[in-house]
């Protein structure tokens, strides 16, 4: 296989490259952020990209966004999200845009070398591979509420998480290095996506937090 690795952790990136090269696979490029992936594929034949989810600059969803862009531009290239975290929304985001040649594996699985390489080969061949923990989380997540929460952007989710911690808009703005007006726009978007209309009977901020915690 011809492989591109995208991970900002140098040890992980170089370790994967060494492991795969030692088993006869070719590393076309090993990069430290999602934005460098498409340029690396511009003039190369690549079978599969191993993509970390959280990379610079915000360490939130750069890998997922890069994976979505990659599948739109080069649908024939397999993409394996490779993360420490089993997050349903990222799995759904990828599966919503691509039904072939995608996967989501937890980094713990790299210890099982044969399983990891088999997963890469499956994704490169156009199949879908999900880590058992990710698959279980997808099955167990309540759909109606999860669907609404999955519509939130990474930044809106950050804002809602801090709301759940009891932070004021001013505190959220300071913690996320945003303006007060930007935070207010994110909060308004959260209310809209969760279906919380303004009424005199309900406190939308409390309801939004309760929905977040219940999910």
From TrEMBL:
Domain spans labelled HTH luxR-type: 145-215
Signal peptide: none
CDD domains associated with the record: LuxR_C_like (cd06170), REC_NarL-like (cd17535)
Domain Response regulatory: 2-122
SMART domains: HTH_LUXR, REC
Protein origin, superkingdom: Bacteria
Coiled-coil segments: none
Modified residues (4-aspartylphosphate): 52
Swiss-Prot/TrEMBL keywords: DNA-binding, Phosphoprotein, Transcription, Transcription regulation
InterPro entries: CheY-like_superfamily, NreC/VraR/RcsB-like_REC, Sig_transdc_resp-reg_C-effctor, Sig_transdc_resp-reg_receiver, Tscrpt_reg_LuxR_C, WalR-like
Protein name: Response regulator transcription factor
Taxonomic source organism: Curtobacterium citreum
